[in-house]
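Q: Fold this one first, please.
A: Sequence and structure below.
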Amino acid sequence: MFHAASSPGQNRTPLPQTQSPAPAPAPAAEPGLRRASEHRGRPGKQRDPFFDNAKYLAIVLVAVGHTWAAVKSDSRTLEAAYNVVYTFHMPAFIIISGYFSRNFDMRPDRLKRLITGVVVPYVIFETVYSLFRIFVGHSDDQQISILSPWYLTWFLCALFVWRLTAPVWRLVRWPLPLALGIAMLASLTPGIGEDLQLQRVMQFLPCFVLGLCMKPEHFHMVRRRAVRILSVPVFVVALAGAWWTVPRVNGSWVYRQSAAQDLGAPWWAGPVMVLVMFGGAVLLSACFFAWVPSRQTWFTALGTGTMYGYLLHGFVVKSVLYAGGFDAAAVHTPLGSLVVTVVAASVVTLLCTEPVRRVFRFAVEPRMEWAFRQSSGAGAGTGTAHDHSGSASRTARPESVSA
């Protein structure tokens, strides 16, 4: 800044020395947006407990949903609840993943985290799950194919594709309509096949792009008391609607993994159902987020290890399935379904704890410093918005994965 210039030979009274005004006190954080310090050795890097709480609750729903899949056939009510949960539980995860991918670019340190946090775990778990299916499940399919994700490893494959495309979605003018258009086109293209689960990648893409477009105030809006109250009748209506549709609508639409023709529906049903499922996912995810605690809770720390719970609980579910545990008559009663639900929630909670994470960190969050060249760039090692899926006990990984 410059004071007014004096003309040569002109006497002016010197202007008094300006003093910088005292800095105004920082505004108090909005309720529910205050962040608790989380990272060790990284002052200033903080986490919002809301997102860790949301990821933990969502991973519980994922595990419960996988167990319900084995016992829901005898109960129309349970199948309705299953369809409601499957409408929003993975979209909620994907929205959070997109939100924390907003600053992803092709910087070497971020690409390194993408490789170690997504690609390597995908290769490891896809291989191990395939061997598990062959030798424990005695499957007739004896192939191990990295290009054909099996069971729950599709999410890592999808996250890799989505995150690589994040810079493109920040560049285009109308990212969400474009993503919806791609999803609609995919839903009427049965020839896509199972390679990299591209049907799911494209049909879930709008949820990821929505997360990319969101800002902190959007999450704050859905956490208001009014939204929390309104979410109760919304869920009731959703359950009632799902109960009505169970015998009338093919439940496979909730998986977003098939084109309309694959489900025996007319071609135009694909784009229509993409819009219906996306609208339902956004509405129910908002209702879900409304009930997620914003404060530190007993399970907040578990939310930092949801990728462990996600990748490991499949072995437990499939082991029980292969052993015939879901065939017992007692499991197919209302009380049995309740017990299965509690056990599934307890098991996935255990798999998110620190002792389990220490044992399996080599596969879920490998460091692999030996595999990369040492970067001397100024930007290496610095992060932006933290992706809350990384382990809290390790060095901050701003763009790790979300389960």
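Q: Good. Now the second chain.
A: Here it is, same layout.
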Amino acid sequence: MDYTIVAVVIFVVALLVVGGAFLIRPRRPQAPDERARAGEREEGGAHTAVAEREEAEEPGDAAGPVTVAEPPTVPPPAPPIETPPPSAGRLVRLRARLARSQSVFGQGLLGLLSRDTLDDDAWDEIEDTLITADVGVTSATQIVQSLRTKVKVLGTRSPEEARTLLREELLAQINPDLERGVRTEPHGDRPAVLMIVGVNGTGKTTTSGKLARVLVGDGRSVVLGAADTFRAAAADQLETWGGRVGAPVVRKDEGADPASVAFDAVSRGIEDGVDAVIIDTAGRLHTKTGLMDELGKVKRVVEKKSQVDEVLLVLDATTGQNGLRQARVFAEVVNITGIVLTKLDGTAKGGIIIQVQRELGVPVKLVGLGEGPDDLAPFDPEAFVDAILGEG
């Protein structure tokens, strides 16, 4: 027997047994943590892509809502500063408006004086017309007596002569020689101080604002004092007027002491070196003693800082005789230096100018002839008489 062949066969069989055992060896099972790590590696790419897509779609902190910054608030631009017209010639420019309101007064008198016969009844009618226009009984009587004397001396008279006679008499009663300038010149380092006083509803705050325009139009600098602390709207209104011409307004909370506001306004005027300080006071009934005493206090407190150059009483021309009673009481409390007659365009009773001046010895210095911002004018007696008589 050939042992060599047998050995070869045995060797081959052994190799086949060993190789088959290696090929059919079972795979070792994975531990749970290994399977988890394998899953994370398989899904990691997908998770990363989703996260990147969400971050691109929803930027910001996922813990709360996204805050969008609002654009900054831009304040509205301040209104431009106006340049009012100068006071010179204002009443002349407003003559047509004045003539319309006073035509009943002037033209009625001219018609009566131009009659062919002037008997007692005619003269009584002339006197009644004057009284109706609030000239006052005393002044009306004087005018009629003077006219009757001149008519007798002249004899016959034409309409032109009647106009001349009436013009002379009205001017004499208005007294063109009275000092009507509003004192607005500073004295030293102190500004001129003007107090505006009057009863409720006469237009004091509006007059204060319009007067500031008159002064600015004349080249003067102004500070406004809102001493009407009973009405918050009064201070707001005054600020509107001041803002239009660049005049600062000193004000305090509603209910503050008016004398304190007036004092601070004058102090501000001194600090700023302005020409004039206009103090708007609260409206008060001339029959209320407490309110009138308070007005006197305002004036006394202001005078600790600077002298008061003007105390201008605002009268409504439509109130007639009641306006005269108001004027008397105010004059007793604060020594009125001048009259501002408002709403003169809304009444035919311009004769109140004659009566107020006669009773108080105080001149009408300013007249209001409308609602426009520049309808306050220095009173010119000749322009006034010419307007109501229809002269150019």
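Q: Anything worth noting on the second one?
A: The chain has a mean pLDDT of 80.
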